[in-house]
Amino acid sequence: GSGSPSSPGGAASSGGAAGGTDLTKVSVGVIPIVDCAPIYLGDKQGFFKDEGLQLDIQQATGGAAIVPGVVSGSFDFAFSNLISVMVAKDKGLDLKFVANGASTTGETGKDVGGVVVPAGSSIKSAKDLAGKTVSVNNLSNIGDTTIKSAVEKDGGDPASVKFVEVAFPDAPAALANKQVDAAWILEPFMSKAVADGGTVVSWNFVEMSPKLDIAGYFTKSDTVKSKPELTQKFTRAMNKSLEYAQAHPQEVRDIVGTYTKIDEASRSKMTLTHWTVNFDKDAFKTLGDAAAKYGTLSKAPNAGDLLP
Amino acid sequence: MQPDPTTAMLSVRGLKKVYQTDGGDIEAVRNLTFDLRAGELACLVGPSGSGKTTLLKCISGLMAPTAGEVLLDGKRVSGPPKKMAVVFQEYGRSLFPWMRVRENVELPLKNQGVPKGERDKLVDEALEAVGLAHVPRSYPWQLSGGMQQRVAIARAIAYQPEVLLMDEPFAAVDAQTRADLEDLIRTVWKKLGITVLFVTHDIDESVYLGERVIILSSSPTVVQEDIVIDLPVERDQLETRSLPRFTELRHHVYEQIQLAKKGHRPAAAGTGPETLTRS
Amino acid sequence: MQPDPTTAMLSVRGLKKVYQTDGGDIEAVRNLTFDLRAGELACLVGPSGSGKTTLLKCISGLMAPTAGEVLLDGKRVSGPPKKMAVVFQEYGRSLFPWMRVRENVELPLKNQGVPKGERDKLVDEALEAVGLAHVPRSYPWQLSGGMQQRVAIARAIAYQPEVLLMDEPFAAVDAQTRADLEDLIRTVWKKLGITVLFVTHDIDESVYLGERVIILSSSPTVVQEDIVIDLPVERDQLETRSLPRFTELRHHVYEQIQLAKKGHRPAAAGTGPETLTRS
Amino acid sequence: MKILKTLGFVLALPVLLVLLWWASTLGAVNFFVPTPAALFAKFGEVWFGPRFVTDVLPSLGRLLVGVVAAIIIGVVGGVLIGSVKWLRALLEPTLEFFRAIPPPVLVPVLILLMGITDSMKVAVIISGCVWPVLLNTIEGVRAVDGVLSDSAHTYGINGWARVRYLVLPSASPQIMAGVRQSLSLGLILMVISEMFASSSGLGFTIVQFQRSFAIPEMWSGIVVLGLLGVAMSFIFQWAERNILRWYHGQKEVENAA
Amino acid sequence: MSADALASGGPVSTTGRDRRRVRKSPVKQLLGLAGIIGFLGTWELIPRLGIINERFLPPASEVIAALVRDFGLTAFWISVGETMTAWFLGLVIAVVLAVLLGFIIGSSDFLRKATNSTVEFLRPIPSVALIPLAVLLFGIKIESSLMLITYAAFWQVLIQVLYGVADIDMVANNTARTYGLGRMARIRYVVFPTALPYLMTGVRLAATVALVLAITAELVIGSPGLGHEIALAQSGGAISGMYALVLATGLIGVLINSLMRLIEKKTLSWHSSVRSEVIV
Lengths: 308, 279, 279, 257, 280
Ligand SMILES: Nc1ncnc2c1ncn2[C@@H]1O[C@H](COP(=O)(O)OP(=O)(O)OP(=O)(O)O)[C@@H](O)[C@H]1O
Ligand SMILES: Nc1ncnc2c1ncn2[C@@H]1O[C@H](COP(=O)(O)OP(=O)(O)OP(=O)(O)O)[C@@H](O)[C@H]1O
Ligand SMILES: [Mg+2]
Ligand SMILES: [Mg+2]
Prior knowledge:
The complex is a heteropentamer, with 1 copy of chain A (308 residues), 2 copies of chain B (279 residues), 1 copy of chain D (257 residues) and 1 copy of chain E (280 residues). Chain A has 308 residues and is an alpha/beta fold. Helix content of chain A is 41%, strand content 19%. In chain A, α6 (142-153) links the parallel β6 and β7. In chain A, α2 packs across α12 (249-259). Chain B has 9 helices and 11 strands. In chain B, strands 1, 2, 3, 4, 5, 6, 7, 8, 9, 10 and 11 form an 11-stranded mixed β-sheet that branches. In chain B, α3 packs across α4 and α4 packs across α5. With 257 residues, chain D is mainly α. In chain D, α6 (118-142) crosses α8 (159-193). Chains D and E meet through α1, α4, α5, α6 and α8 of D and α1, α4, α5, α6 and α8 of E. The structure holds adenosine-5'-triphosphate (ATP) (2 copies) and magnesium ion (2 copies). The site of one magnesium ion has 4 residues of chain B, from α1. One magnesium ion (MG) is lined by residues 52-53, 89, 167 of chain C.
């Protein structure tokens, strides 16, 4: 069953009431990373309460539990990167995004993730990655898809890049110990790797599209159809949160400290994710086409089916 | 004398047991036929490896015979019968190491649902009788070999069985204790009127103890001889043993065993106990 | 006669053993002192639970005494000495169940590095001597109790020890085999000139077999009496046992054990064997 | 006849369970629980191809090396620790410490120490499989029968001979119990070792299927694991029958009738 | 002369033994401590000597300091409590199920043969592969962890029980049969005590497997507990914090084992493995 037993109609009218007794409970599965800061901020700011929603944020540690959680109804909504949801859709799970989650900053040299090589590496640009071992957190996902595309754009052979799975926290060590030739790392670990003397040779998100959206909040298509009001309320609150987060970077850096163990120093130095309300359909298509081309998906996804 | 299955408490008929091993079959028992009347006390003697333990295992229903059958009270034995107690030759392994002496003796009674008061009495009496009243709280492995064996005997006596099978139960105890235990068995036998089959290697003991001695041939085994011991029912360690008849019987059994060891076998399988003519 | 440690092969002096258990301490052996000269064959008798097994374990260095010491050839025993063989009372558990009869007997020799040819000869002879030449490829648990015990004896004999300790080694074999084994032990003893300490419960056996009989009191144990058996060295089952001197000695030992059982203890701990004055 | 009977024992329950599963998937369709038909269809497609050589075989190789190494380490260590009292006292807490550390946490450290190599994966397998063998060996060694041990002592069977002729055979029933545990743990750890810093292998493939929601494929991988488990276990049981012939013989003396 | 021996050798050696006896268990614990200290020392040296960079593997002292800091936090103890709850419940369910099934299957030759292939098929299925199913059934609540813990620990105990049941001494069992002990009574009085040492080893194995799985489930699924904290520390780059939590996990393991040893000592005092420690 779904996690919203009380009538959604009643909740809508009681707008800003702080009583909370007639709030609709909504459980949202998130991952404890910087990208999810807006929902925490929005909760704190009362955006969800304003919509009559009582947020129950549940931290799943990795992606493994997110989609089954949504499918089984444990989560009403959940946060995931685009490719994961595309893959699930591709395999026949009827999912749909209801809000944007995180996007690239669009600035080469100042993005949330990139391919890092150790000091003195012969790899100078994306095309040099051909034939080399590159670590990503998960295979057949957004990392290798965007990197392959970057290599191809730069004139290298994307098929010859050898990817291995190394979790982001372990990647700087793997890189320093020369266990991989290059590592795809996200913040806050990327700043650390760069501080160690690493160089970013590819800003793979930006290189795919400066407007690329990376992750979003999704639910079952069923939910969208059967509880349109609930979905709309969540979307509205979420969008407000995204805008608020984008506008208040310091508050983001602070709130990240409450649900992750990233230390003060790293938090203040790291590059922040870009948050925006609307999905960029073109970037979405580019990503989907690339995923289909490199075999992650069986066919290019239809943006209309997936995006709100 | 033909055996009469109707009055027999225990009938062994045409019993044969062949062990199957990697190295081929071993015929332990070839053909055993004999009867025990209710309330009879018989001793079983025979060379080492002649199949006495095997026979006891078949009688107690622990092992299925290869051929032939065992009848208890007219019913064919197919599993361990009720009210039968067995004292095994490997006394050390037949006690439960995780239970104290008292608990070992008590277990079968408890399992039978004998009420606490009566149980305690029976256990105390049995331990007293075998001279172990002072160690009820020891574990079996804290006892000497002879003491362990006596615990097994106490357990069998406390159980108050109708049929008692004992496999060399006094092998590990000293001469004096042995004499006491012999008298104990006869007392219990007379008091409860039970049927006893007693395996021993001691010829004196078999004659002193039994009302009848069954002598087995060496393997593959048949009944070599079956003798009635016509000594008075009241026996005394010193007196009985010094009777001329005792010496006579003793001698006879000894000779038969000698023959059995040499591989001599009786013309026909024994069919019933024969009374040795007085010489 | 004062024991003389310089000529003694085995000296037990002031041996005391207390077992510590949950239920308090058990003083199994209080104070044992005696000597065995090299090449002596002594029998040890005593009531059940008097500490014979305990004593043997101390002598073989398997257990540290609580007080006192054991000297072998003048050296204090602290672990199992070389060239000593022990036949345990629990024969069933002293054989390796994962080895066949032959391997069981062979193992100690193999371990000593005795060459194959000689080893085979020793093993064959020993198995032959105990009457088990026909079952070398059986596993111990495929044998009868008496046969298992004989395997353990064969193993000890094949080992050709200088000191042989045996704990009721014939308890599970029949009278005839027992007689044969008694003679075997005496033959081996004479041939190899070894020192033998033999625990038995059979008074006849102790007198027939030993050159000396050491009688223990009941627990807590001291030496009750130490008797020289002045029978001729060449012994014969029928002849020797019918000698009047045999009956005399036998009677004496029996009386001493009776006393021991009743709790009588000697005025002073025995210090050496005394010759029983001929009556 | 005998073969038929054995086959019956092997197959009866599994067939029954598959039928049950089939019956329960008749009505409701759950995305995460495929029908037997869908699974079997994928099974051939997925595993009888080049994947067998590129993914399955290398994994099996690592598994084999890992399990064998774990058994050797476990038995040798167990005999040492089991027979030397002070060693046991010295090492037990530390060993217990390591035993309690989940392999997924251990992997990063092993990567640091050994790099992203096959030996790292083998080390992960060993790190988990060694415990049942080690603990069982220790217990088995401690439980050697007193009389038997005394017999060996008095015949001067010490040191290596004692281990070879007394300790190992006597502990072998328990060691075997441990080995049997290790085999299936090994399969589990093989999967875990390939969940991190990997790009190929049977475990990796299964995890990859799971992540990409290729659910029938994932279950078919699980079936492969199960079948491997059965195969390994049957080989093991056969070996055990031979190694422990004396033991089973002794135990089955009464069944000989 | 014998009295002499007694006077000189006797009392001295007696007290000598007694003293050893009294000091025995503290010595044992000291040795155990020495082992741990040795391990921590090695760990301290590896980063200090630069074999591994300090940033990736912080020295033991630093981690211990972090752990001590954790000890002061209620959040840490709440996590420990959550993990231990999942551990305990999962273990109890697994042990109860495995013991019941183990005795039923183990005491029937037919069942043993008939279930063999299925048991061997199910056993090597990794709990981690069941995560989607667990989440599907229970979400990311404690039940998911419980399912994984129970699944993994169950087999450990079951196999041990099966082996233990097969190990009964035939003489003992026959004795019980002739005294009219029925199947249930034999299970209680003969089979259970025989299988107990195996069972204890099984429970000891399972206790740790359950702990490992509790942590792993929290780590991978994200249900609350120490594993979740480890994941947080890891993804937050708090390396010392992460190792402190791993250290805590190990310490819990040591604690659990000591507890098991204590139980074992009480229940298995008759068994030769325990006996040999007490006597001589
Ligand atoms: N489990 C078995 N497998 C194979 N052979 C066996 C088995 N048990 C006994 N035997 C053989 O059967 C024969 C008879 O054995 P049994 O134990 O019945 O003799 P016994 O008369 O009790 O001897 P003892 O007086 O020495 O105890 C022996 O030859 C023995 O080797
Ligand atoms: N492990 C032990 N723990 C406690 N007490 C023990 C232990 N072993 C023996 N005893 C006690 O020590 C005493 C002597 O035992 P021991 O086995 O030496 O006697 P024994 O002379 O060999 O008797 P038997 O002739 O019956 O074999 C007995 O009272 C026994 O209960
Ligand atoms: Mg017998
Ligand atoms: Mg004894």
